[in-house]
Amino acid sequence: MTITQHPTGFRKWIIVITVVLASLLEMIDTTVVNVSLPQIMGNLGATLEDVAWIITAYAVANVIILPMTGWLSSKFGRKNYFVVSILIFTIASFFCGNAHNIWQLVIFRFIQGIGGGALLSTSQSILFETFKPEDRGMATAIFGLGVVLGPTFGPTIGGFITDHYSWPWIFYVNLPLGIIATLLSLTFISESVDRKAIDRVDWWGIILLIVGVGALQIVLERGETEDWFDTNYIIVLTVLSVLALFLFVWRELTIDYPVVDFRIMKDRSFSFGLVFSFVLGFGMYASVFVFPIFCQNLLGFSAQQTGELMIPAGLITIIIMPLVGNLLKRQFPPQLMAAIGFGVFFLFTKFLSMSTLVSGESDFFWPLMMRGIGMGFLFVPLTAMGLSGLKGKDMAQGVGLNNMIRQLGGSFGVALMTTFIHNRMAVHRMTLIPHISNYEPAAVDRMNMLVQGFVSRGYTLSQAQGMANGVMEGSVIRQSMLMSYMDCFYVIGLFFLCCIPLIIFQRRSRNAMISMEGVH
Fold first, then answer.
1. Cα Rg for the chain, rounded, in angstroms?
2. What is the rounded CA–CA span in Å between residue 352 and residue 355?
3. pLDDT value at position 140?
4. What would the mean pLDDT of 36-41 be, rounded to a whole number?
5. Per residue in 137-154, is it b (16+ CB within 10 Å) or e — as a string?
6. Angle at CA 305, nearest 5°, toward 299 and 309?
7. Which of 174, 321, 345, 495 has CB atoms 3.0–4.6 Å from 93's, for a disulfide?
8. For residues 413 and 484, is the Cβ–Cβ distance under 8 A?
């Protein structure tokens, strides 16, 4: 049995700062670009369809590399792989900011995503090896800060930089931080004690993984924009994804040197953990995606206002996560804490689903605080439960798969909720339109009031009637949008609520804390 020497004192916390900085950079860059897209379009002369590939390229690269991180760490050494990934991310960030056309930016965003995706899982593995087994709940909490806060603060940071400087600086700010993380990694991080040389490479597995997961991510990112299966290339990519993923899983289960070892899914806790990681990604990313759009498109908030709304929730998450990690250390049941998290997150969506067209910033303070508390109670226990039964080389594989499934859950959540909102808008509009008629006294009174108002401003009767009709149509659209967003929040909440009985009756592992020696 290999005895792991855990760093202590100053060196331990420098390692913590280094890996959290690296994972935070990666997670912020998943959303920091979103609010800068209009400026990028104008500066590079790109269309909305073209500029959307900036986000898609990064997400595709992330989801491809995540399940391979355990294998790559074993192949090249965890420290070497981590440092090279930081360098790839940092150098690609410079070229992203220096791009002269949209397709250069897309290519460098893909390369940035390859480096960034590796940072997430490798950071988590390094943290687990840095902390003693009994303290790894706290390690999970510290790692969770980057995962949860990155998507939350990304739009705020992006909006501030874009408003006060220019869009290339959303990439240039990564340069000094990336250099610092590289130097600290080279100085303080040690190589994994259990590194195992890998002679044979599963090239077919790698190719099938890239094709299958890459095609799936493109379908999820672009499906709604392209009207799903009304577009030929979406159909082709869907078929290709299903076929490639089927062959990939079959191959990995039948060879002795898989790039992704699915045999670890025999661990019941890990398999259940993957399900709940998908749910967590679904709710976390979908809510972060839908809420800003709701605030900006319907309530007229600016990007910076919307981002500032999320700051108190992020701060409460910073406070909650270490407390939850300490409770895990004291053997508090992770199932109970996760159930509390699901319940609090449901309350967050329930309160949001009661918003109106006159809701202001103060109306969202407590619901968003509930989201922050819910995320704190969800991320740490779910990760601890899922990884508790894995040891040694299986841990690196488990961490990579867990992060990939969470990200795919987010992609599914964003895609499904976007489609759901559009469909519900059509339904609500069809429901509201019959009430705008000459047989509805309230509608007639409103129409007459509008016509009289426009006539009093000097418009002719026909002009006033046309403008009044436009106002009524706008009211129907806004009400339809409001009801659709409220339905969306409610559905996300119900999705989380249904998870409570599943998590409560999940069998508790005797080793509920993450216990593994020699993590890669």
1. 25
2. 5
3. 67
4. 74
5. bbbbbbbbbbbbbbbbbb
6. 95
7. 174
8. no
Q: Average model confidence (pLDDT) for the chain?
A: 78
Residue 388's CB is within 10 A of a number of other CB atoms, namely 25
What token pair was written down for 145?
Answer: 């800060």
Lookup: tokens for 519:
């993590």
Residue 456's pLDDT band, with cuts at 50, 70 and 90, is: confident
Return left, alpha or beta for 485; rule: phi > 0 is left, psi -120 to 50 is alpha, else beta: alpha
Q: Where does 223-333 have alpha helices with state H?
A: 232-254, 268-293, 303-329
Cβ atoms of residues 333 and 508 within 8 Å: yes
CA distances (Å), origin 222, targets 56, 229, 481: 8, 11, 22
Q: One-letter amino acid identity for 307?
A: G
**Structure confidence by residue, pLDDT tens digits, 226-253:** 777 778 888 888 898 889 888 888 887 7
**CA–CA distance, 189 with 185 (Å, rounded to integer):** 5
Question: Does residue 344 contact residue 374 with C-beta atoms inside 8 Å?
Answer: yes
508 secondary structure, DSSP code: P
CA-to-CA distance for 248 and 212, rounded, in angstroms?
A: 8
Residue 512 pLDDT class (50, 70, 90 cuts): very low
Calculate the alpha carbon distances from 201 to 71, 75, 207 in Å.
Answer: 10, 9, 11
Q: What's the token pair of residue 252?
A: 């990995």
* Average pLDDT estimate for 465-483: 82
Q: State the Cα torsion 215-24-88-278 to the nearest 10°.
A: -20
Q: Is 245 exposed, middle or buried (0-12, 13-18, 19+ CB in 10 A)?
A: middle
For 257, which DSSP code? S
- Name the token pair of 452: 């009289």
pTM for this model (two decimals): 0.72
Q: Using the structure block, give the residue that is written with the tokens 């950071």.
A: 123
Neighbours of 261 (CB within 10 A): 19
Instruction: Output the CA angle 346-351-353, nearest 5 degrees.
Output: 95
